[in-house]
């Protein structure tokens, strides 16, 4: 947690500017950041990896990068260098040892101790900052030993629970799409024995070797699913005809911990003569992500930019539980956030007069009938969601300071304010 006096002064300024949207750049940076060096490292990373980061949350195309290691390595290397140069030695050999006192990232006393699966210990904020990347990237390396690590495999020592848990346990019941459309070579995993590629909406130009169109449902055969590695294998057999000159496609798909995307794997194309003719790589040229049908059931988190790590849930996150229950959560609001009478923001602030058009537009109003918030009496929202309901792509937040119809300020989603889905929804209960 931030603890400097600098935070308070900056925070107040922020509240007056954009508490409605929620958070300003400065406040987000302050969350959990106790050292300037880490802020700078984040900024450098953001500058150095525009392509990958942009791909992860591209508002328009929804194209998605599946590998995160290129993003993280330079920063992690810097952090590793920093650690070794200061003589950090608390390398834990086994799970039964007591945790060390010192965090390998901030080099300060451990706070809210978390443990990686490689048995290294970090402050909760430090490890989250070190291994969080724009969604759906979810696997990176331990800041100390570089072992594969993700928020799903880091546990909070006091509770024993992982920092993130997926909302689903497997691929079954899910659909994965390429560019926002079901039926254009979308993958459907209804069950292991009922998994198929849908060509129901494919372009008329897609023709098999015999001149016919691909079937609306082309089943995977020889299917296998390894839950431990989240890996699906299966075959698509076009014989006796061909598709794109291929007689068969052999798939290996590796899903991320949250089942948000296919992040690794490949397709081997087999020619009619039996030779393997080419490979397409998931996460590199072949991008599939989970299909989402609505905003309800989802949480949207704010970020500084489309490329940035998202804020925590509870930092003015938007929760769309049902058409009748949508709210802004302030459960983790920064200490500097106060209503204008000095009180803390409510934990749940409901959207009123909610309207969802069944397509991609949500409207709602937040009233500050008691004390105002940053001078505002009313926030009016129009959110226009990107095709797969992963980001708020357009729309605006209008801030009203009195009862007039003239907003004092208008913030545009996708330009001034960035919200994307929380890919990692912890299970209830
Ligand atoms: Zn730390
Ligand atoms: Zn480690």
From TrEMBL:
It comes from the Eukaryota. Residues 1-80 are annotated as: Disordered. Pfam families: zf-C3HC4 (PF00097). Gene3D superfamilies: Zinc/RING finger domain, C3HC4 (zinc finger). The keyword Flavoprotein does not apply. Residues 1-11 have a biased composition (Acidic residues). Keywords: Metal-binding, Zinc, Zinc-finger. Residues 14-23 have a biased composition (Polar residues). One of its GO terms (molecular function) is zinc ion binding. SUPFAM superfamilies: RING/U-box. InterPro entries: Znf_C3HC4_RING-type, Znf_RING, Znf_RING/FYVE/PHD, Znf_RING_CS. Residues 103-146 form the RING-type domain. This is RING-type domain-containing protein. The lineage of its organism: Eukaryota, Viridiplantae, Chlorophyta, Pyramimonadophyceae, Pyramimonadales.
